[in-house]
Every structure is written in C-alpha cells, then in structure tokens.
Amino acid sequence: MKKLALILAAATLTFSASAAFAADHEGHDHGSMNMGHGDHSMMDMGSMAHQEVIDGVKATFRVMGMVERMKGMEMPKGMKETHHIAVEFKDVKTGKALTEGTVKVKVQSPDKSDQTRDLMGMQGHFGADFEMAKKGKYGVMCKFVLKDGKTRQAKFWYTVK
Ligand SMILES: [Cu+2]
C-alpha cells in the first residue's frame, strides 16, 4: 500500500510538471506571435516620418533611433549621434528609384541650435546620423539635387518623445 501511494505521488508530480511546462511554452509562443516580431521589424525599418512630392519626385523620410537600430551591438563610446535620418527618392511618373545626387539635411533642435550634414548614398537611400537627444520638436529641412539638376526642398517636423 505504501509503495503504491509513492508511485502515484511520483506520477502526479511528473504529470503536473509537464503540464506546467506545456502551459508555459504555449504562453511564450502566443506572446511572440502577437507583438514581438512585428514590432521588431518595424524598428529595423524606422518609422515613416514624412512623405512629400516635390516637382515630380516623391521623397520618403524615415527616422531611426540608433539604440533600436543597433540592437544587440554595443554603442561606440563617445558617439553623440542618436538618430539616423534616411530619405528615398522616386520618380513619380516612372516609379523608379532615384539614387544619384547630392542631399543635405539641416536639423533644428528644440533649443534652436542646428546641425547640417551631407547625406551619403547607401543601399538605395541617402542617410546620415544626427544628435537628437533632447525631447521636443525638431525641424528637418532637406535640400537635394538629383540627376536632372533641379534643386528641390522638403521640410517637416519630427517629435522626439
Ligand atoms: Cu541609411
């Protein structure tokens, strides 16, 4: 009788342990299906900050937080830049990407100080890093000259929360 009780107790223990494991596992899968992955890819892309058509060219701006962009990597010491601003240009008529040209961006901080950078062409877009550490509204002004030689400008506000 004593032996049987022991076996039963052991069986119950094993059963409840595996049930708990299964419940745990299901919970985990469910959680990652819901939010985790979608969020992650959104961060990698950077959120669209502004889109505008200027004289036949569609400009799409994205602003990426560097901490998110460099997830899993260590931030280089002494690096002040906090955000990456990227812009893509498209010919509205043909839908073709315009990847050649000179692009300048001026960012005005909430304290009215400003930074101007030449954006480098990289993987189909132009981009540069800026210091946007303070919370508030930043004015982003972009001046660009693409292959057709025309000077175009775009402007938008970006809020750091
Ligand atoms: Cu970039």
What would you note in describing this structure?
The chain is built from 2 helices and 9 strands. It has 161 residues and is of the alpha+beta class. Strand 1 (47-54) and strand 2 form a beta hairpin. The termini are far apart. Bound molecules: copper (II) ion. Copper (II) ion (CU) is lined by residues 84, 86, 122, 125, 127.
In the CATH hierarchy, the architecture of the largest domain is Sandwich
Distance between the termini: 68 Å
The CATH homologous superfamily of the largest domain is called: Domain of unknown function DUF4426
Low-confidence segments = 18-43
Q: Report the principal-axis shape.
A: elongated
Secondary structure: number of strands: 9
What letter string, H or E per element, gives the SSE order?
HEEHEEEEEEE
Small molecules bound in the structure, each named once: copper (II) ion
- The portion of residues forming beta strands comes to 35-45%
- In CATH terms, what is the fold-level topology of the largest domain? Immunoglobulin-like
Main beta sheet: 9 strands, antiparallel
Number of helices: 2
Domains, number:
2
User: Rg to the nearest angstrom?
Assistant: 26 Å
Structural category: alpha+beta
Q: What's the CATH C level of the largest domain?
A: Mainly Beta
Mean pLDDT: 79
How much helix, percentage-wise, in residues? Answer: 25-40%
